[in-house]
Design brief:
CATH architecture: 3-Layer(aba) Sandwich
Mean pLDDT: 92
Number of domains: 1
Radius of gyration: 14 Å
CATH superfamily: 5'-nuclease
Shape: globular
Structural class: alpha/beta
Strand order of the largest sheet: 3-2-1-4
Order of helices and strands: EHHEHHEHHEH
Length: 138
């Protein structure tokens, strides 16, 4: 069974201070199930890496290593986003359009969502999207 990952969960794999239950479960599940993310995930992860370089938490060598590691993981990028649905979800749940893209994907393919973002998690609960690390997905 596939599940949706966002950039917050992804970054928790590499930054100890970002760790959370959903991140640990998502990484453990990668062996048994592939993760899926909207194509914007690639850019969000890279942005987070550069921001952490600027903050002195990572150096360029660490970023290169993280990206190489991510390339080897079973993470499928979805390019079939429904832009109208993303915009409607952003409005309905007061999300950024970026976060709404993860919610739209989870709804469209009927998959649980792994996120550490509180607002996105709240919107997922309201939309009846299961969250990795809660309830039956523990």
């Amino acid at each position: 069974m596939t599940f949706i990952i966002d950039a917050s969960v992804t970054m928790s794999w590499y930054l100890a201070e970002e760790a959370g239950v959903a991140g640990k479960l998502a990484f453990e599940r990668l062996g048994a199930a592939a993760a899926t993310a909207p194509v914007l995930w690639r850019f969000e992860v890279r942005n987070a890496l550069v921001v952490n370089e600027r903050r002195g938490r990572l150096d360029t060598a660490a970023t290169v290593g993280i990206l190489a590691h991510l390339d080897g993981l079973p993470i499928r990028l979805d390019v079939d986003q429904n832009s109208d649905a993303v915009l409607a979800l952003a409005r309905e749940h007061r999300l950024t359009v970026y976060d709404a893209a993860y919610l739209e994907l989870a709804l469209r393919i009927d998959a649980p969502l792994a996120t550490l973002d509180r607002q996105l998690a709240r919107a997922a609960r309201a939309a009846k999207v299961p969250l990795l690390g809660e309830g039956e997905f523990r």
